[in-house]
Amino acid sequence: MSSTDPHAEARRALAICNACGYCNGFCDVFESARLRPALTDTDLEHLAHLCHHCRNCLYACQYAPPHPFAVNVPRALTELRHHAYLRHAWPRPLARLLVDGPASALLVALATIALVLGAVLALVPHTVLFAAHQGPGAFYAVIPWGWMSLLAALPLGWSLLAVTVSLRRVWREGASAGEPPPAWRDWRAALADLATLRNLRGGGPGCNDLDDRPSHWRRRLHHTLLLGLLGCLAATTVATVYHHLLGLQAPYPWWSLPVVLGTLGGLAMTIATFGLAWLTLRADPTPSTSASRGADAALLALLAAVALSGLALLGWRATAAMGVLLALHLATVIAFFLLIPYSKLVHGGYRALALLREAAAKRRRTRRGAGDASTTG
């Protein structure tokens, strides 16, 4: 059974779940839904972002298709998440990028690559672009440091602003009247859940990544991807310190900290993106939607392009191909930065807020329970 309103279908499915209660130990969604019997639209969007899409509930559910109730909580919450991304995207006209998914990502990536490569071909003398440059400052002989930094900083700054506006909307919309701000312990609990991906453990045995057999592969690959991104961020940060504080210009030796961190980060991103793509291709499509699968594919392809172009630049930086590879890597990074607010990557922010709100709600329930116990005693 389905509905054109994603809230209605999610409400129907979770109302049945509240009456059943079999899946309460799988993740935080079902316990939280049980404590929200009204299942308002705000409640449902909170639950949708709280869901980590581990799929265990579908395979454990006695009311799942082909039962007449056709309960499919992962799919219902996936549809609702996509609806929420569209509604909260800022600026609103650019939400269309979320609708088109892979087509939008491909168009933006190709347009960015064409613009950057075209500008480099037009502005950089071919005797410089196609020459082998070595030693400190070799990259900046092709693209000056100032331009390289500006071209990356502008789209990143725009995306951070867009994501901040969207997340602020989500948080304010989900706040109930008189709700106190989260305490420090709530932040710690939410960060711990986010870092460990506790809700991707499926209650312990793992998630149904491929079929009805649980595994921990998707959680491990998510961790690998996160470590890869953090490694690349650390490499960029250390390189900035080298450049501005130590007066050392890239490219750096193979054994230097920026290169080691960047190499490990790029390899981790490559392994994770291909691994997650393999899981997505092999997975049962029943718990997901075509829109979510397309968004997954677009993000993984873009992340793989960033990682592989960076590794290619590292491998051939001392050759005549360095200039073109540098422009290509810069273009993929710019495209990635531009698409952050309108890609599947934004789910990390929404999920973090849901975990924070849930941690605060748990703390308040525990405190009320302790107060009731002391009063009774």
Structure description:
The protein is mainly alpha-helical. It has 2 domains: 1-88, no CATH class; 90-375, no CATH class. Helix content is 69%, strand content 0%. It is built from 16 helices and no strands. The chain crosses the membrane at residues 106-132, 138-163, 225-245, 257-281, 293-314, 320-342. Keywords: Membrane, Transmembrane, Transmembrane helix. InterPro entries: Citrate_utilization_prot_B, NarG-like_sf. This is CitB domain protein.
Write the layout of secondary structure elements.
Elements lengths: L5 H15 L7 H7 L6 H10 L5 H5 L12 H16 L7 H5 L1 H22 L2 H4 L8 H5 L2 H30 L9 H13 L20 H28 L12 H26 L7 H26 L6 H18 L7 H30 L1
Protein name: CitB domain protein
InterPro entries: Citrate_utilization_prot_B, NarG-like_sf
Keywords: Membrane, Transmembrane, Transmembrane helix
Order of SSEs, N→C? HHHHHHHHHHHHHHHH
Helix content: 55-70%
Strand content: under 5%
Total count of strands: 0
Instruction: Please give the domain count.
Output: 2
Head-to-tail CA distance between termini: 49 Å
The dominant shape is elongated
Individual helix count: 16
**Structural Rg:** 23 Å
Mean pLDDT across the residues is 92
Poorly predicted runs are: none
Largest sheet: none
Derived structural class = mainly alpha
Please give a quick description of this structure:
This is CitB domain protein. With 377 residues, the protein is mostly helical.
List keywords for this structure.
377 residues, 0% strand, mainly alpha, transmembrane helix, 16 helices, membrane, transmembrane
